[in-house]
Every structure is written in structure tokens, then in C-alpha cells.
């Protein structure tokens, strides 16, 4: 089948994109930019956007399997390949060999296509790692708080053995007032129970160690602790 050149009217094939008589690019020709294809591959490649842009039906496979993240990885690699492809070779593959001028924007595509995903990846990893690290340090401070109760627990137990009753405060138990540290704000005795207040503003309430008299002396329970978030407490205190 034939049609006519939009410029000189000479007969040309219906699929011809350039007139053989006057070298005019026909209106039916759609230029497929190498930079554009790379940018689409970087940002919407997991849906096969770059393949649809190039008129390739197998972009459907990207769309069907985008949830596996495999198409995203493939598209990112393909975007790099597009950038590395020689412009002449690119035009042979996707533009019927037609050259319309040098494409710009390479630096911009590289910055947004290569560096931005790396920045996003670092951001995602940081969003996961930082809260985990903070929780780890908070749990470590809770452990320090529990260790700080040792002399108070001993003093309460000795007081009970000597007097058959529980001391009202640390002074009565014969233990000096607690000196605040970077992690523990205060440790005090209230009617035999030992209360621990953490220095971290993100941790509220108290670790509460309750004494229980047994035949062998005093045992301790921390299940009545009011500390929040409670997930920071040892499992024996929850």
C-alpha cells in the first residue's frame, strides 16, 4: 500500500517515515527519545512504561509482575543501558535510522535516575535502622536501670530480715540517695518497693520492683511496672 509525501506529494510506502524524493520526515513518524526512554525506565519502569513508550507490547510482563520488584530492577538496568547506547545505534533500533539532532538532558537523567534511587534506598534503610538502634539503646538503658536497683533490693531485704517489716524509704533502709546518671534519673524506695525512673524523655513511667516475703527471704516482681513503652521491659516484667 502507498500514500503520498506530506511535503512534495510523491508516492511513498505507507510505512515509510521519510520521503525518498525530498527527504521530509512524515507526520506519522513519532520520535522515541533515548533520554525519555531512560527517564521512564528509571521512574515507571516497574510497570513497563519504557517498553510501552518504545511501542513494545511485552511491557505487559512488567505490569503483571511489578509486585515482585523484579521488573523494577530490570528496568533500572535497562535505563542505564539506554544511556550507554550510541545515539546512531539507538535511532537504528527505535527511530528507523532517522536522526533529528543530539539529545540533551543526559546529566539530569543520570542525576535523577541513578543518584536519586540510591538516596531513596539509603533513606529507606535509615528509616528501618534508626528506630531499631534507638530501641536497642533504650533497652540497654533499662538494663542499667535494673542493675542500679541492686543495692536498694539488698538493703530492703536486710531491713526485712532484721525488723520483719519493709522500710518506708531509702534512708530508713540505710542506703544513700541515688545519684542520677545519663541513663537513670532516679532510684527510690517507697514502702519497700523500688522505683526506677529513666532519664530518656521517650520513656515514661517507672520500673517498679515489688518485694514479696517468702520463707527464704524476699523475692521481687516487676510485673506492676508502669513504664512506657512497655515493650522495652524484660519479658518477666510484662
UniProtKB/TrEMBL annotation:
State where it is primarily located.
Answer: membrane
Pfam family name, one: TM2
Keyword terms: Membrane, Transmembrane, Transmembrane helix
Spans traversing the lipid bilayer? 35-54, 60-84, 105-130
Q: Where in the cell is it found?
A: Membrane
Q: Which residues form a coiled coil?
A: none
> What InterPro entries does the record tag this protein with?
Pilin, Pilin-like, TM2
> What range(s) does the TM2 domain occupy?
33-80
Keyword presence, Oxidoreductase: no
Task: Provide the GO biological process annotations.
Answer: cell adhesion
* Entry keyword annotation includes Cell cycle: no
Gene Ontology CC entries for this record: membrane; pilus
Please report the record's description of how this protein sits within the membrane.
Multi-pass membrane protein
- What's this protein's family per the entry? Belongs to the N-Me-Phe pilin family.
Q: What is this protein called?
A: TM2 domain-containing protein
Originating species: Halochromatium salexigens
